[in-house]
Design goal:
alpha/beta; Carbamate kinase; eight-stranded mixed beta sheet; two-stranded antiparallel ribbon
Length: 295
């Protein structure tokens, strides 16, 4: 290693030190999705980042999606994918596929990847230990084409997060990997948006950070430049002005709910950037957009 490289390494480590001290013993909930879940190099980078976080005393909790993988298997099985207002209509057959893909294929791949890089990951769904208690989504869903109300099936909303399950795992030095499937009072399974699950888990644990990995650089202004830091009021203004819209709205709603419920900050970051997670948590500049509560 030459002198310049050594100096750079030392500088990086020195910059990271106060953040390691600041977040030691704290919980960080991470929504894992987008390209970071598909590209092989990014997948390995993510796994190493999570293992490093755990080794320096941070408690990472991962919530993952899997929409494209669900769509692929439904297509292979000849089951049509239908969406209304961005939500997958989830009948009984589709719910079976959702559970197979999220609780089996995707979840166990992430667990294996983290364990391969030296971590101690454990995969669970919201059904395990009654982690995510849920009910059928109560909001009325309207088909934008027909303007008629639509039953979207086994799509759920969270009524309670059983934090005992997660605290038991983290205290035993495990890294929980959560598939976003909830369970109703009658034992019914529910498909729940992974962003929402990550937000509600962060709220229930009073996490220090909620990090949402996306396929965008963060929240963009009218000139398509990344806004690095926003308050709750700032975000609400951007929504009313139509600058935050469409696909970013559910993530921002999740972020606003989190910071209003005790989560110290929410980061929306670009998962396409190598080691985006470490850059966000351990550097002065960070990446993406940080959302804080007012005041």
């Amino acid at each position: 290693m030459n002198t310049d490289t050594s100096a750079t390494t030392a500088q990086v480590l020195t910059e990271a030190l106060p953040y390691i001290q600041k977040f030691h013993g704290h919980t960080v909930v991470i929504k894992y999705g987008g390209n970071a879940m598909i590209d092989e190099q990014l997948k390995n980078n993510f796994a190493r980042d999570v293992v490093l976080m755990k080794l320096v005393g941070i408690n990472p909790i991962i919530v993952h999606g899997g929409g494209p993988q669900i769509g692929d298997l439904l297509n292979k099985l000849g089951i049509e994918s239908k969406f209304v207002s961005g939500m997958r209509i989830t009948d009984a057959d589709t719910m079976d596929v959702v559970q197979m893909v999220l609780g089996g294929l995707v979840n166990k791949e992430i667990v294996s990847l983290i364990n391969t890089h030296g971590g101690r990951a454990v995969g669970i769904t919201g059904k395990d230990g009654g982690l995510l208690k849920a009910r059928k989504l109560s909001a009325q869903t309207v088909d934008e084409d027909t303007e008629e109300s639509v039953d979207i099936g086994q799509v759920g909303e969270i009524t309670e997060v059983n934090v005992d399950v997660l605290e038991t795992l983290t205290e035993s030095q495990f890294i929980p990997i959560i598939a976003p499937i909830g369970v109703g009072e009658d034992g019914e399974s529910y498909n729940i948006n992974a962003d929402i699950v990550a937000g509600k888990v962060a709220e229930a644990l009073s996490a220090s950070k909620l990090v949402l990995l996306t396929n965008t650089p963060g929240i963009l202004d009218a000139e398509q430049k990344t806004l690095s830091g926003l308050s709750k009021t700032d975000v609400e203004s951007l929504i009313s002005d139509g600058i935050i819209n469409e696909g970013m709205l559910p993530k921002v709603d999740c972020a606003l709910s989190a910071v209003s419920s005790g989560v110290r900050s929410v980061q929306i970051i670009d998962g396409r950037v190598p080691h985006a997670l470490l850059l966000e948590i351990f550097t002065d500049s960070g990446v993406g957009t940080q959302i804080l509560a007012d005041g």
